[in-house]
Queue: 4 jobs
Job 1
Amino acid sequence: MKPGAKLGLLLGLWLLALAAGTLLGGQSLSLGSALAGEPTAAAILWQLRLPRALLALLAGGVLALSGLSFQSVFRNPLAEPYTLGVAGGAALGAVLALVAFPQAALVGVGIASFLGALAATAVVVGLSFRREGLETSTLLLAGVAISVSSSALILFLEFFADPHRTFQIVRWLMGGLAVVGYREVLWLAPFALAELLLLLALRWELNLLLTGEETAAARGVDVGRTRLLMLAGVSLAVGAVVAVAGPIGFVGLIVPNALRSRLGPDHLHLIPASLLAGGAFLALCDLGARTLLAPAELPVGVLTAAAGGPFFLWLLLRRR
């Protein structure tokens, strides 16, 4: 099957996930009543289900694109925002903003989250950099160190916060997409579009980086500039996701690796495929989180971690 046909199938899956996330859930919904303007049904459809499904599609797409870019820049299939500690750094920045400024607006939390993600990325790269270049084999160890340190600092902040704020932080750290209205969707959409355009603009450089830094540089790629642009852009996008949904892990690990085995290494196909598949994956995970224990609701980060942990171990075994 040609790549274009596979992208068409992924688009169909994306639309199916949008429809399922909007129409299905723990509470039954009459589509006819909602479209006819019945107040309760209309509120559930337009103010709860649809914005939540759209947010899941955007957040999943951003996380999958972020994992794809990290795996290409560092030439490591295990690299993604969660395993590299970028999501942990973003979470630490957001928690600092929430504790220091309890009434902080979404923009303020987003800025703090971005700065935390950027700082974590800089530390991970710095710890992995040797005189001869970036040592990709130490990336995961550096990411684990950043994640553990961020978690410890978050626990420290929780200890001194009031019980109500501590409960909010704990639930938020599990990852969740429960929103009312479209504020978070409108916040995240520009970041998703910017990340998509950045990756498309650098798709040739990403293809060459997969062959090695020396080969890419010999063919005209400014490796330092490309890496800096990718790290800054991805950190900004991950920070935006963490600000509205918390640290949701392993989407960027599962989706790009699954697609690469089907579509090949060309980023011209992998980039739109990651956007579509990542969004559909997270939307379906969120649907499962809402329905498995209905009327109770699981944090979506629990389901993605349950799927990502075994997948991570499988990748490790395959690399060995």
Note: The first strand starts at residue 129 and ends at 130.
Job 2
Amino acid sequence: MLPDVTLTTGLAAASIGYLLGSIPFGILLAHVLGLGDLRKIGSGNIGATNVLRTGNKGAAALTLLFDGGKGAVAVLAVAALLGKEAAQIAALFAMIGHCFPVWLKFKGGKGVATFLGVLLALYWPLGLIACATWLAAAVLFRISSLSALLAAGLSWLWAIALGQSQLVWLCLALTVLVFWRHRENISRLIAGTEPKIGQK
């Protein structure tokens, strides 16, 4: 447990983070917009990249915004109610909720937008650099998964560079989640068969 965070506070922060993080905005938007069951389209993932494979760029943008927003809201709400240290717990569990939502039998998304959202809420310069890392890699390589892996994998180094050493362990934990959820993508990257952004 983090210093100055009691068990009760930690459980409350984890619960708030998980419940907000587990809202499957991709599936909800796809349903509302008549795009079909996202779990039966493309990769079957519930995130923005797979929504983009439906051809609806607006829906993909909204999914990205809402998935990032739920992570940010979880962090900001817990920070206001329970303190900044508890907000780190909320950040971690918002990611866990997105990746393993109980409502979808623990088969969720890959956590990239939520990862960026929680970093922006915890310390916006770190979040911006992580976003810039993702964007630069996406422009250079045109592969969403590689961009995500680079943004996550470098986040703890950016935290140190920005003097936010208290966020290093959280960044490492979030990175482990991102890499685990991208394990199949990593195999395809190694094999050279990973699809590029926008490819159906």
Note: The CA atoms of residues 134 and 147 lie 5 Å apart.
Job 3
Amino acid sequence: MKSVEKTGRTVDEAVLSAIAELGVPRSDCRVEVLEEPSRGFLGLLGNKDARVRVTAKESRVELAKAFVAGVLERMNTEAAIEVRPRGETLNLDIVGRDMGLLIGRRGETLRALEFLTNLASSKGGGEVLRVVVDIAGYRKRRERELEEMARSLARRAIRMGANVTTEPLDARDRRIIHLALQDSAEVTTQSEGEEPFRRVVISLRDHPGPERPGS
């Protein structure tokens, strides 16, 4: 991290001078006031300027990548980290062999890793507001599996003429189910229950379940 020390008649003046030299937005800097300004006798003798140290924050991209790399190292896992910033979202794709342990049962470990990565990088600077972590293309495969499951459960609901309920799903997986069936003319979906046991109920449109509370 690059730091600059500057002086000025006021703290703001010193900070602005340091930021101009660093060439980064103020929101991406950490400011330390080393000395407050003071005015001497009659404002003429013994005047002392403010002195500050301004440090450019590491970017959220750098912090997120460093955190994931540290986790892989501690797990003795050899893998490459592919970084793809997209506006306010950063995609971190972990590519390697034997990634099953890092993905976990139905992506539970992956979700925990993504949560911790967002937490660890939250103080970083830059435009990135959210980090999405994927491992060996797992999320795309999971999305296809959930879409197929949604269609299969919809067919079952139509065949049985009754509501069909999924297993407990997290918010991201429930959203995939809702989107997969949102244009269906025969069934509708709603989420029910409390986390972490919230499920999606698939109902015939002629026999709707309770009012849809969202995902």
Note: Strands lie at 3-8, 29-35, 50-56, 79-86, 89-96, 130-135, 164-165, 187-192, 199-204.
Job 4
Amino acid sequence: MRYAYIKAFDIPGAWYRTLEEVWGNGDEFQVGYGSEITTTKKLNLSIEITNPESRPLVAEKAPCDMKYINSYALQYLWAGVKEEGETYTYSSRLREPVDQVKHLIDRYKQEPNDRQLTLVIRQPQDILTTLSGMKHEPPCLTVIDTELVNDQMHLTCYFRSWDAFAGLPANIAGIQIFNEALVNEINTRASTNYTTGKLIFHSKNCHIYSRLYDLVEELIKPEEDSRRQWSQKDGELRQV
């Protein structure tokens, strides 16, 4: 299992860097069980985004837009509602049976130096349904850990499985919107002036589906080519 670490300034940059890393260095893996039985390239991956608040939140060529991101952040990360036919959303598990988001906001108002405020989405019974042989998809996003440092709210998130092309750009942008809403609620209730900080992600299975290989290769080629361009400076060639 190969491991990689990516550091990016903003969310679009993190998406491009992830696609390049998984495409260029990912292990071939045959999926035998899951939402899609296919071949993938995958990595055990960590991503650090230093300025995720920087706009735009979504790359021009990403398969989602801000209308979708705002809807996703509200419904699937914040509001706690489920559409008809949905077993759960991330937000429904964050809000029930314990409203973790409310308690987190209340606790930061009371004690901003608390380092124990972790939001948990996956539940113990998820492993039972998997072992029973029933068709079941436990949450990809399992944990959102929070920490206030130097008046900034930093989030560290874990994805058990992560679609690098379609899921990752929407997930990260949505989590940034979620963090902005979280900080706004704390500031409103506590009369503070906190801002959002870094977003850090870990996934043991950040992958690209084989059906997207040609699309991803075409997408990242201009990015790779731009870094291989040569420019003339002071009579010497240098790579930029």
Note: The CA atoms of residues 70 and 211 lie 28 Å apart.
